[in-house]
Amino acid sequence: MKAIIARAALLSLAACARLFAAAPAVPPAPLPAEHLTVTTMPPESPHRVYVLDEAFFNEIDARVDVFDGDTYRRLGQIDAGFTPGFNLSPDGKTSVVATTYYSRGSRGTRTDVVEFTDNATLKTTHEIVLPPKRAMTMPTYFNLAYGADSHFLYVSYITPAASFGVLDPVKYSVIDEIDTAGCVLVIPSGANRVSSICESGTLLTVTLDASGHEASRAFSEVFFDPDRDPIFAQGVPMTNGYAFISFLGEVHEVDFSGALPAISKPWPLLTAADKAAHWRPGGMQIGAIHRHLNKLYVPMHQGGEGTHKDGGTEIWVFDTMTHQRTARWPLAGQKLSNVLAIQVSQDDNPELFAATDHAELAVFDALTGKLRHVEKHIGQTPWLILNP
């Protein structure tokens, strides 16, 4: 036995000797140093969307995810801070975020800013420091918005007194603050007009001079009853204005192309049978319109008073010319949870994007309703989708 053990030991030593003999005497050369680079985004696509994640469960860490609806890839991310406002420049080349930072994370000295991001690189290029009074609301198109020619940028203020700031996005400066007599949000029209929604059911429109200061103001007629049937503040872009959908399913179309808003007679989403079955619109971004095809998409659910933020269990499609429903797309069979935000691309082969309360981003064929893709875990609370 001892002879066997000794022989095994000798063999092991011999093997180790061969290994050491084969080892190089000089260590290998170090690996080349890595250098970080900044690449550019892929070419623009009509199916690229910007998805604002409010990060409701840790609100100081919102972000915008950039998603490609053709390749189903996440292309990048934009930091967005605390309960941000978000929008795109009219040419789609710049993202703007109005946000708030505190010196101790969630407390301390408050700093409000508007940050400008180059959409080709997702690099933050400039910022404008604001008075500490920007409106911290659920995301809409109207927290922060450019004028039609990009000469002015507007941001909504609430202290709780309501006003808005006029900014210069070229010189990166604050021009003026305009009091809005209790009316809120910024709905731009033309190069120098801003409308705000009033608690009386009217619109206040402020016209600015060439320097960005108030030249005149006027109130519209009453176009909705805020006590009987309030509207969602998330207007839906149309060719010359916005459609405002009410809690009970009335569509109020407002043309902002003139000096003052032109308000059309409202039309209903619901039939008598729909009302009896308690169908209602709901969610955070409650509609999308394909402006060339005249199609309106609305997430709908069955519920009662107070369910206006509940997501849709179905997507209903309407013809905006005939005001008739043309399709219903149930979501349960697609294994999707309730839809909170919706957007449609404006090309001839449109895609419909729908964000759910389980942080999924579903991509549909907007003409047929066929589900093409479901992107899981697109943040925590994706509540606004923008498409250049």
Description of the structure:
With 388 residues, the protein is mainly β. The protein contains two helices and 29 strands. It has helices spanning 2-22, 272-276, and strands at 48-53, 62-68, 73-88, 94-102, 110-118, 123-130, 144-146, 153-158, 162-168, 173-179, 184-189, 193-197, 203-208, 214-219, 236-237, 241-245, 250-255, 262-263, 267-268, 279-281, 288-290, 295-302, 314-319, 324-330, 339-344, 351-356, 361-365, 371-375, 382-386. The strands form six sheets. A seven-stranded antiparallel β-sheet has the order 6-5-4-3-2-1-29, with no helix packed on it. Strands 15, 16, 17, 18 and 19 form a five-stranded antiparallel β-sheet that branches. Strands 20, 21, 22, 23 and 24 form a five-stranded antiparallel β-sheet that branches. A hairpin with a 4-residue loop joins strand 9 (162-168) and strand 10 (173-179). It is globular, with a radius of gyration of 27 Å. It starts with a helix and ends with a strand. The model has no long low-confidence stretch (mean pLDDT 93).
